[in-house]
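User: tokens in, sequence out, please.
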């Protein structure tokens, strides 16, 4: 870590802000260029077609303007970002003992090995730009379930990889999808065969340790006919005085009659720009759920989306965002209905504290000829104090008059009468406020596995400290 980069004294506000004394074995020069993209591909020993794909994506990225319709991105200086840092020569270890000790200690602090033993069917761990660990239970491997780093997916399952890679989120989709396509590194490749039900969740944990680093994981999840899977993603990073950058791409294909769930609890440090593209393609009689939690980060722009492309497809999006002082959480979701008898919902809960700003930005699109679509949107915002702010930007594009579409939005402030009542029952003021907030987010939190719901409530309580009184 260079001398001019200091760690903020943040007390107990963000317990994951520690820094490990781990030096990457190789780090690209700062800034984005053709030479950097070629170096990433070289260090990964990729086939020629992937380098060609990366270079084409770089051209697309450079041709697109920085978006100005959402959060303020003017402070994000790409010339000061490292686009690749290789933490260790060994990738995708199958045992924690194979992970370098100084990196393994980080995940022990975060509780990942313990969670794997108790409640998970498989775990992937990314450190800076590479997956350093991937493991899945042997009985699932015997059933043909693939859960490896995306690099291992390209290397050992190239035909399957090429069938799905960049088909749900092509580089042309948006500026930061193009950037990810040019410099992607790390992420998971998941394939669940026909009829296989993965009873326990798979989890990937993303840790950024190096200052001024960009992390650009790309995850592909394919759930074949009649199969089921739940994938959980968690993220943390140290807090530096300089900015870091995260821009992931998630591509999910849910085939006929399959069920999938993707849960994200992103608890980034408050110096992180978080710009993510997440999309699911949902086919006949299939179901997909996005459960999206956003805490921390300086700026988040993230709108999980589902494209319902065959009859009977359904999708729900549940979203929580917490914006504290100095943060802008611009989140929401998109549901695109391109087939008849499809349905879904978006439930968005946002909390703004201090000078924090939360925004709901959503799109409901029903194409002409998509008959009898049913969809409902509910976005609720809670303001903790006078300075906090919330905005709602709902877009509805309904091209078929058989659709049933509902939308409701509420904005409320922390209720003094409720706090007084709880204080009269013996609760301190801060605890009373935190209890009200837990009740506000309960419709989303109850969908989490127990361990993650407890963790989310604990994180909310930390964010709420000192918010009243």
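Assistant: Sequence out:
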């Amino acid at each position: 870590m260079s001398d001019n980069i200091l760690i903020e004294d943040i007390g107990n506000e963000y317990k994951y802000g520690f820094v490990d004394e781990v030096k990457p074995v190789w780090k690209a020069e700062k800034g984005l260029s053709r030479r950097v993209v070629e170096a990433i591909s070289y260090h990964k020993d990729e086939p020629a077609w992937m380098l060609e794909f990366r270079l084409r994506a770089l051209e697309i990225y450079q041709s697109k303007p920085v978006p100005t319709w959402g959060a303020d991105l003017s402070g994000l200086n790409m010339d000061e970002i490292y686009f690749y840092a290789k933490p260790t020569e060994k990738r995708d270890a199958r045992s924690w003992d194979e992970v370098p000790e100084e990196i393994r200690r980080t995940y022990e602090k975060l509780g990942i090995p313990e969670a794997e033993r108790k409640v998970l069917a498989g775990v992937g761990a990314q450190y800076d730009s590479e997956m350093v660990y991937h493991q899945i239970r042997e009985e699932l491997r015997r059933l043909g379930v693939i859960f490896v780093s995306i690099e291992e997916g390209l290397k050992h399952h190239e035909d399957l990889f090429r069938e799905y890679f960049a088909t749900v989120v092509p580089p042309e989709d948006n500026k930061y999808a193009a950037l990810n396509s040019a410099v992607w590194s790390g992420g998971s490749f998941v394939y669940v065969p026909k009829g296989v039900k993965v009873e326990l969740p798979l989890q990937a944990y993303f840790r950024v340790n190096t200052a001024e680093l960009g992390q650009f994981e790309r995850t592909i999840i394919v759930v074949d006919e009649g199969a089921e899977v739940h994938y959980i993603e968690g993220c943390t990073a140290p807090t530096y005085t300089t900015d870091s950058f995260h821009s992931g791409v998630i591509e999910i294909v849910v085939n006929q009659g399959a069920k999938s769930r993707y849960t994200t609890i992103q608890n980034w440090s408050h110096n992180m720009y978080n710009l993510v593209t997440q999309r699911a393609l949902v086919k006949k009689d299939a179901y997909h759920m996005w459960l999206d939690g956003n805490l921390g980060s300086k700026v988040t722009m993230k709108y999980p989306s589902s494209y319902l492309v065959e009859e009977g497809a359904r999708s729900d999006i549940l979203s929580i965002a917490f914006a504290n002082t100095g943060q802008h959480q611009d989140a929401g979701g998109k549901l695109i209905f391109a087939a008849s008898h499809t349905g879904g919902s978006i439930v968005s809960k946002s909390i703004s504290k201090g000078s924090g700003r939360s925004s709901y930005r959503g799109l409901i699109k029903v194409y002409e000829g998509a008959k009898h679509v049913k969809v409902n949107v509910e976005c609720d915002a809670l303001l903790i104090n006078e300075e906090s702010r919330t905005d709602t930007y709902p877009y509805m594009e309904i091209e078929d008059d058989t659709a049933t579409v509902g939308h409701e939005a509420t904005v409320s402030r922390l209720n003094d009468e409720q706090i007084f009542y709880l204080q009269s029952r013996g609760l301190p003021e801060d605890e009373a406020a935190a209890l009200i907030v837990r009740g506000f987010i309960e419709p989303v939190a109850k969908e989490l596995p127990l361990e993650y719901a407890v963790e989310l409530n604990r994180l909310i309580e930390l964010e709420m400290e000192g918010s009243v009184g």
